[in-house]
Design brief:
Elements (H helix, E strand, L loop, with lengths): L2 E2 L10 H13 L9 H20 L7 E4 L2 H14 L5 E5 L4 H8 L4 H6 L2 E5 L9 H6 L5 E5 L13 H11 L3 E4 L11 H4 L3 E5 L10 E5 L14 H4 L7 H10 L9 H14 L4 E3 L9 E5 L5 H10 L2 E2 L15 H5 L4 H4 L2 E5 L6 H21 L5
Parallel strand pairs: 1-11, 3-4, 3-5, 5-6, 6-7
Antiparallel strand pairs: 2-8, 7-8, 9-10, 10-12
Helix pairs in contact: 1-10, 2-10, 3-4, 11-15
Length: about 375
């Protein structure tokens, strides 16, 4: 029996999204930029989806720039701010997704430093929470961009975006909020935050893969990463993914992730009862309701992942977006967790179709795998 418990990596598409994709592909076959009836039909699909998503995140339709996903959205925002700015400082949390940290790293090179750029990364506390006052204290008059995610993809911890955003708004400093893991799990009000940028992704809420968006505050100028036909009001060229965009809008509000908190809590209670030396990351702070990141001392997370896969469980070790890497989680390392212990982590994220039986079965599978791995290592159990 297969049990899928990796909804933070991707949420399998809901039926409403699949239906919307099929309908858009068959009934709106034209290019949205074409002026004939087929093109107008495709344009209506895109415009209707834009209006629906804008209302959901409480902003104007014109704020939305459709992209291929969170990674592209983050890169557009980062490059747009820095291409239009004089050299200065960049402030980011140390627990951002690689889609933020990787493009920022080029501004910490020796060449960038000689040009006047500097990058400050703010580390979280032991629970994975960024201290708002600490981050605000790192912001200077020369700061050109501040980056703080709304919900961490590994720990699920909700970050103090409102406090940092208020400071940036008062100082007129651009801020990027990666909200990819927050959509569907906590309310989002883009206009109320008063930030310049926010990135979102469809496949985290049961929409199609390969489609996302960047929310942009009115009046902020974007730099096209790939100049071309001038789509999306000249902000992101390339023919719009009409079926994907339709599926994205259709997936909104179809999943209430808060309903999975009791299953997550049961899993953690059962785990601690059966494996007392395990520990739950961020157990006592506000986090997304479906996410559990656990440390299992004495076990290698990647090996454990393979054991669970053989038993039919799909879970994650750190971020699936960089699963090809053997390095320990940069999030756990930033929290001050020793490398050897960080390598024992697994992330469980619940979603549609999961039950209490799945939680109990996973604990039993972890217990079995733990015993097997310890026996292989010559440890008496």
């Amino acid at each position: 029996m297969h049990r899928y418990l990796d909804f933070n990596a991707t949420c399998p598409p809901v039926q409403a999204a699949l239906d919307a994709v099929t309908q858009a592909a068959s009934q709106a076959p034209g290019n949205p930029s074409s002026l004939h009836w087929a093109g107008r039909a495709a344009r209506r699909v895109v415009d209707d989806a834009r209006d629906k998503i804008a209302a959901h995140v409480k902003t104007e339709s014109g704020s939305i720039v459709f992209t291929s996903g969170g990674t592209e959205s983050n890169n557009i925002a980062i490059h747009s701010v820095l291409a239009n700015s004089k050299p200065g400082s960049i402030v980011s949390s140390a627990i951002e997704h690689p889609a933020v940290l990787s493009p920022l790293e080029r501004f910490s090179t020796q060449q960038a430093k000689e040009q006047g750029w500097s990058l400050t990364t703010v580390r979280p506390d032991h629970s994975g929470l960024i201290n708002a006052e600490t981050m605000i204290a790192s912001i200077e008059s020369s700061t050109r961009l501040v980056c703080l995610m709304l919900a961490n993809n590994e720990t699920g911890v909700l970050q103090p975006v409102e406090q940092v955003a208020a400071h940036c708004r008062e100082r007129g400093i651009p801020m990027l909020v990666d909200a990819v893991q927050a959509l569907g799990k906590t309310p989002i009000d883009f206009n109320a935050l008063g930030i310049d940028f926010m990135s979102l992704s469809s496949h985290k809420i049961g929409g199609p893969k390969g489609v996302g968006l960047l929310l942009v505050r009115r009046g902020v100028r974007l730099i096209e990463l790939a100049p071309g036909g001038g789509q999306e009001r000249g902000r992101r060229s390339g023919t719009e993914n009409v079926p994907g965009i339709a599926g994205f809008a259709a997936a909104l509000d179809k999943i209430d992730f808060s309903t999975f908190a009791p299953i997550r809590d049961l899993f953690e209670e059962e785990l601690m009862r059966e494996i007392p030396d395990a520990s739950i990351i961020a157990k006592d702070v506000n986090r997304t309701p479906n996410t559990s990141l656990v440390l299992l001392p004495g076990m290698d997370g990647e090996t454990l992942l393979m054991q669970l896969d053989l038993a039919g469980f799909a879970v994650a070790s750190g971020s699936a977006c960089s699963s090809g890497k053997r390095e320990p989680s940069h999030v756990l390392m930033a929290m001050g967790i020793p490398e050897q212990l960080a390598r024992t982590s697994i992330r469980v994220s619940f979603g549609p179709g999961n039950t209490e039986a799945d939680a109990r079965a996973l604990v039993e599978a972890l217990l079995t795998a733990s015993r097997r791995l310890k026996q292989m290592a010559g440890v008496r159990v």
